[in-house]
Amino acid sequence: MKPSVPTTSEEARALTISASHALAAAGQEDMVWGHVAVRDPDGRGVWIKQPGWGLAEVTGPRLQLVSFDGGVLEGEGTPHVECSIHLEVLRADASLVCSVHTHSAGATTFASLDTALLPLSHAGALFAARGLPRFQATTGLVRTPELGAALAAALGSAPAALLPAHGIVTTGPTVGAAVMHAVLLDRACRDQLVAMAAGSPRALPDEDETRRKAEECWPPHQLEAGWRYLVRRIP
Ligand SMILES: [Zn+2]
């Protein structure tokens, strides 16, 4: 099956819409805030929704193509105030196709505890094995290219980062991987919040098993399988 990587502008537009709807269906919508960006296959910038619409409300006419300089090349209106997140994260690593920024309630609540994410589920193992950076430059809006670049640096090669008192950023070499990383991070954080509310999580895999689990549970084809499931769940 074809991976969720666009080869034409039309595919990039369609994937931006599907990714937005899938994130909404997975519970990541925060009214009109949060967005997903897909790299334009012709290198012109990123496809992203216009401000003012929720993830579930994204349609073709509500998309923009935003250049890496922040100019709107196609579509109407000005870019999202936090568009720099995507422009700088995708500029920093040419292997990435997609980035997601949401205000995941589970991850935001978890981030406030300032504690490490534990491998207490398959989802947790993914981030415990690969590292879950915390962006420390601000808890406010990532509204400038400088803050976007600082976020990209904090992220490094990790699949996700926590933005304490704000939300999350996730990435992927496919659209499906970036969306799955957002959904799995929300799940992993909620799992740990429940466990910590009940006591102190103790029965955990060790470092070696956590690394093995991350590889066997989350190879690219499994992330794509999860992505296709999320797309089928779009109302
Ligand atoms: Zn935000």
UniProtKB/TrEMBL annotation:
One of its GO terms (biological process) is pentose catabolic process. SMART domains: Aldolase_II. It holds the Pfam family Aldolase_II. The keyword Lyase applies. Keywords: Lyase, Metal-binding. PANTHER family: 3-OXO-TETRONATE 4-PHOSPHATE DECARBOXYLASE-RELATED (PTHR22789:SF0), FUCULOSE PHOSPHATE ALDOLASE (PTHR22789). One of its GO terms (molecular function) is metal ion binding. The keyword ATP-binding does not apply. InterPro entries: Aldolase_class_II_sugar_metab (IPR050197), Aldolase_II/adducin_N (IPR001303), Aldolase_II/adducin_N_sf (IPR036409). GO terms for cellular component: cytosol. This is L-fuculose-phosphate aldolase. It comes from the Bacteria. Coiled coil: none annotated. Residues 14-193 form the Class II aldolase/adducin N-terminal domain.
